[in-house]
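To fix ideas, we give here one paired sequence and structure record:
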Amino acid sequence: MTTTHALTQILLTAQEFEAKGFLGTVGRIAAATIIFFVAIGFIVGLIVGIFIGRLTARRR
């Protein structure tokens, strides 16, 4: 193995680790965003359900 080949392999390995780290960060941000919107959906659904429940209970 030549020195140039070894340096090329080291550089490619470093770039691969950097890419994996970036994708891991993007994945964490995406997961946090999805969890945030799901939580907001649950809260809004709960509030809407309470209002609908009160409106239908008054009519009976």
About this structure: Helices lie at 3-59. The chain has a mean pLDDT of 84.
